[in-house]
Amino acid sequence: MQDIAAALRLGLRDALRAPLYGLFFGGVFAAGGIAIYALLATYNAPWMIIPIALGFPLIGPFAAAGLYEVSRRLEAKEPLTWKSILVTVFHQRERQLGWMAFVVLFVFWVWLYQARILLALFMGFSAPSSLEKFAQVVVTTQSGLTFLAVGTLVGLVLALVLFSLTVFAMPMLLDTELDFVTAMLASVRGVLASPVTMLGWGIVVTAVTMVSMLPFFLGLVVVVPVLGHATWHLYALAASRRQE
Fold first, then answer.
1. For tag attachment on the chain, is the N or C end more exposed, with fewer CB atoms within 10 Å?
2. Which whole-number Å values give the CA distances from 13 to 16, 22, 125, 166, in the listed order?
3. Residue 45 in 3-state DSSP?
4. Are 15 and 225 in contact, with CB atoms under 8 Å apart?
5. 118-127 burial string, b = 16+ CB within 10 Å, else e?
6. Of the candidates 65, 217, 70, 59, the residue with the CA atom closest to the CA atom of residue 209
7. Is residue 154 within 8 Å of residue 116, measured between CB atoms?
8. Taking a C-beta distance cutoff of 8 angstroms, is the pair 62, 101 a contact?
């Protein structure tokens, strides 16, 4: 657990040393959340909800790669320029990180599919059409509470799978020339080697992210850079330990 604390300290350090880069990539996540929420809330363009919701997981890994590259350059004492960072992110589409984006998309698609099944199973065809009515039904009816409990459990399982596959794989693909399957297997082995510590890291990431989304996703602008930089340092620490 001391390694998690150290990674968070280094992540905060990098976020403060290169604040504009963090604000930019954190803003990408915040903007995606705001766009999806706005469409869900207004329904002015319902046909855009699914494309944006499905497209966002494809963007996320590349935005995270920008944060990893900033931390890598800071650690290696290499110069930081917008051109160098954005070019690195842009070139990831030609490397294995692009396939990781599709892995994230696949898990996200499975989540959406399961959510629709659970919605139909517990709430039938009479599910409320507005977000306000839907929230009311979920927290005040037996079927809604059951839907919430089962959906949370299913989401937890999928989140653990996605976390295990990607927590080390994404920074590893930026740092090495491994294929994405090998990187995912290495990530899973890393999680299984230290399950309690990695579960603690997953809880930290989840809790901090959930809290940061409360002020209309704007907290992500600050939190995402710290977590992104910290993830890089956690990977770098694990890699150095493995070499030893």
1. C
2. 5, 11, 51, 23
3. coil
4. yes
5. beeebbeeeb
6. 217
7. no
8. yes
- Classify residue 218 by burial, with Cβ atoms within 10 Å: 0-12, 13-18, 19+: middle
| Dist. CA 47–CA 54, nearest whole Å | 12
pLDDT tens-place string over residues 64-103: 899 999 999 999 999 999 999 999 988 887 888 888 888 8
- Global pTM reads 0.84
* Calpha distance 2→234 (Å, rounded): 11
Q: What's the rounded Cα separation, in Å, for the pair 239 and 169? A: 12
Which tens digit of pLDDT belongs to each residue from 194-220? Answer: 999 999 999 998 889 888 888 888 898
Distances (CA, A) of 149 to 118, 152, 160: 11, 5, 17
Query: With contact defined as beta carbons under 8 Å apart, do 168 and 190 qualify?
Result: yes
- Kindly report the length of the chain: 244
CB 26 within 8 A of CB 224: yes
